[in-house]
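Morning. Coffee machine broken again, so started the prediction first thing and wrote up yesterday's gels while waiting. Chain of 474 residues, entered below exactly as on the submission form.
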Amino acid sequence: MTKTVKIAVAVAASFALAGCSTLGTGKTSPDLDPATVTTPAAFALTSDVVAQDRKTLDYLLPIEDPAFTTLRAIAEAGAPTLAAALARIDAARAAADGANANRLPSIAADGSVSRTRINPDSFGTNLPPGISIDRNQTSYGANIAANWDIDIFGGLRASARAATIRIDAATADAAAVRLALVSAIAANIVDWRTLQNRAVVLQEDLASAENLMRLTEERARAGIAPGLDAVQAASLIADARSRLAALPGERAVIVGALVTLTGKDTATILESLKSDPAETDAPKPPLSSPSDMLRARPDVAAAEARLAAADADIAAAAAERFPKITLSGAIGLLSFALGDLFSNDSLVGSLGAGIAGPLLDFGRVGAQIDQSKANAREAFASYRGAVFSALGETETAYGQVASIDAEIISLMAQEKLEEDAEYLLGIRYRNGLSDFRDVLNARRTLNTTRTQVAIANGRALRARVALWQALGGS
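Came back before lunch.
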């Protein structure tokens, strides 16, 4: 080994040691460690929960409803938002393939034919006797060249690691899109069935109002009740009909949302909604813990992956401080006659090595490192925000389930009492012992409560859907 080579090896080794000491192991910085973000051991707003296997969380969804089953399958097969998310996974994979390919040699091949016309006088006018210069020259060439940046300081390795981690982030994002998609479809199906239940209640209210109308008309013809009673009964009919007339507008909103979510036309959506749902009670919420929720939530997983990728970006930026060692070589053929292209004399080649690094960059690399560190701090804040957003959403969902369930119990008890009151007032009115306004007010109050019960039952099912999404689905 020559003295020059020994010096080069020593310089390269010293650079390598310096690089390792600066870049570290590539692990997450202690102040950006996800493990420092802690959550409580249990949810505070849970009540009346049951132990459930996490694989069965779909029981919180309207899985017995044929419309939900059909539209969920349609959406998962080709919803626009989900297709876009899957395309982002492919883009992330391509970026990772490119980053890994940058660590390997680059090999290129080329071929050429060129014809040149020269001025022989450019070689001088006093050439030896018998020597002449051909004015027209044709050359034929073929080359294979290789170039390789040796990744001694790990910059390319860190970039490849960051790109690979971003595949995980894109995959988790797609899972989050699917979670939100299924949740939105379930919520709209629940709203559709709630509208159907409200329509049934309003039809019954309309029938009761029409019965009152007939009663007041009979009493008015008999001269035992004023005509005002019939007018008031007519207003009760008009109220029921106006509320029924508002339902198609609400249905249109739901259908439009399902068209957007599934990427299917209105006729397909309406056909799916024709099926009759199975009658099911609102299920009990599952017993879970924040740690279970964090492991299942894809948005938290995506935020954690982005944090790891941002940390790898710091290492990639720091590697720019150190020299880059490049090996290059080429082998080819060059001749001035096509028949001589593959002769031994036409073989040409080159082999070289180079080292280059920043001498005075006036803070450019430092600025890149600072920017990467700031991006990592932002990613850590986003991860922390995702954790506590998930915690807050789940606590809200548990609290909503408990509150609405209690509300339904009270509303059903209220409905029973108001039915009794309306019945007794009706008897008193028929016997002339009560004013019709009392009957009318009792009927209006009962109608309102019956509608509130139908709406509350829908809200209870919607709260289960929100809890399913908050816990990370199945």
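The longest strand covers residues 136-150. Going to sketch it on the whiteboard this afternoon.
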